[in-house]
Design brief:
Elements: H1 2-25, H2 35-48, H3 61-67, E1 71-79, H4 91-97, E2 107-116, E3 122-125, H5 127-130, E4 135-139, E5 145-154, E6 159-164, E7 190-195, E8 203-214, E9 225-228, E10 240-242, E11 248-255, E12 266-270, H6 271-284, E13 290-291, E14 294-297, H7 301-307, E15 315-320, H8 325-328, E16 336-340, E17 343-344, H9 348-356, E18 363-370, E19 373-380, E20 382-383
Antiparallel strand pairs: 1-2, 1-4, 2-3, 3-6, 4-5, 5-6, 7-8, 7-10, 8-9, 9-12, 10-11, 11-12, 13-20, 14-15, 15-16, 16-17, 16-18, 18-19
Amino acid sequence: MRRLWLIFAQTVTFGVAVLFVVSTLKPEWLGKAPVFGTSIVALQESATAGDAPPLVAPSYRQAAKKALPSVVHIFTSQKITARRHPLFDDPAFRHFFGEAPEGDGPSSSGLGSGVIVSANGYVLTNYHVVEAADQIEVALSDGRNLNARIVGSDPESDLAVLQITPANGQALVLPAITLGQMDDVVVGDVTLAIGNPFGVGQTVTMGIISALGRSHLGINTFENFIQTDAAINPGNSGGALVDSRGNLIGINTAIYSRSGGSLGIGFAIPISIARSVMEQIIETGTVTRGWIGVEAQEITVDLAESFGLPDTRGALIAGVLRGGPADAGGIKPGDILLAVAGRAVEDPHGMLDLIAGQKPGETVRFQLRRQNKLFDTMVKIGKRAPQSRERE
């Protein structure tokens, strides 16, 4: 009996082993699909027949296609007056040798970029691109070169508006860019910078918005820059900074660089400021800003402690122009300006922006602190005189 049981056990073991080998190596003998093959096929089918679309690298071709025709190259030339010899300043020398001979001096040229903002030929660019230019030529994306004139400029924001002159009196129908909204712009958004860097031709670079509201840079009088890491180089000035939909959100203006090339820190004037300046220039030829005649300084921690202030917000009035709007409104040196027309003043730069944004001739409420006492006063806003700005 024991012997029969051993024979039975060995026979079952051998049969199971044979079945395993056959099902693994020759499953078709049993009428089954391969075990591992089934798993592989199933995985392949699940990978190809899934609901999720395949991953595709993002492209901004549509944004570039929309904005590129509206960005132009600007070429300027300036005639340099030849310096005459100092001897011609001597009357006796001129008596014997006559006046200095007239002649054309050498000319200098510059290049930059601009953005078409209306179909009838208005172009927005930087003031420093066209500053002191005797002749301006605009190269369109379709290959045409047309002359342009300066409609008006605003050195304090470094903006200028040109108007393209039609050739042979022909009517212009140009591709105007779509203006974006700064309310929709946040840090981290993708941006495209379009311009003519180093004169190599129309170029698109991509980056993100690195920061908003950059100021205290010493670039312009009024600063509220968009910072981007999209490559901006010489020749990009006045070009477009657009969002991922191709809408204009800024005018490329400056870079931070020690070598002259892009280091990933570029600055653009926000479209909110550019639009306001542009509309005023087109309507009146100039930009009008408010003014009250004060000199302000920043409130440091030490000043706040010495004045017994709760914080460093506001602007310390260091001087008041005698007979100016602030003087007439009762503002005195030593006062701390806290708000203009209900809007808080954070620092002297913010104060300048708020006052400049007021309409000359209007009477506006100012909130101040004097000897730790808050009070309000009404000031009639004056008109800020246009200022020229020298650039390095």
